[in-house]
Amino acid sequence: MKKATQFGMPTLIENKTLEDNIALCKRLGLKFIELNMNFPEYQLEQLEQTGTFIKAAEQAQIYYTIHLDENLNIADFNSLVAEAYCETVRRTIEVAKKLLPLRDKYGDPTQPLTLNMHMNHGIYITLPDKKVQMYERDFETYMDSFARFRKSCEHWIADSDIKIVIENTDGFRDYEKKSIDFLLESPFFALTWDIGHSKAIGEKDVPFIKSHADRLIHFHIHDGSENPPKNHLALGDGEIDLDDRLRLAESRNARCVLETKTVAALEKSVNYLKRRSGI
What we know:
279 residues, alpha/beta, eight-stranded parallel β-barrel, two-stranded antiparallel ribbon, 44% helix
């Protein structure tokens, strides 16, 4: 029997507490919340109070995934900064290990628990005729950082059913594609397809993403448009071929976050899915 796609929600700025997010998640019939570490209430020190998160989730019969800080930069040239970000990942993996039983009880145990990660472009230097990305200029140093990071993550995750999933944002740089290729050589890493982000930049990341379709296990689902560039729209409010994207997510048995930014847009997106096939 074909498994139903697992849909969840992001942490929303309108909801100031974990309880507010959980109440909304339960009301809308969603399965999980992606805890966003850009929010002050979901910083590492708070997430490490796992008992509080587990108790609240148990009461609502939901589970969690985690979105790492968007500023995460494990390749920063300042080794103190890079080490701090790597230590953040290590400790977040430990949190995820403690949250795994929730996935087993209320989610799909065949889907790894995910830590969603953005690629940090690094800084660039503006010359009279062009901009030079420092990570491209010092590519070997950049890749050395990713080699250490990959090896460390493999050790930290070990035999836990956790994967770090790399999300597209405003267009992968060429040097980032090479580092992602390197990370995907490891079974501990996979991909997130944010379909709204890719739409807003003219789908230029799509060939790269589809070349790694076998590593897609997580989706950020929201509508978007190219001209003007918009994303994080409610489903049905943009130009994306949502059926095509959702069919791919289903074929990959991928978990899907309905990544709108407002409660109203999330409600509208849930209603869209109910009309489509039910959740």
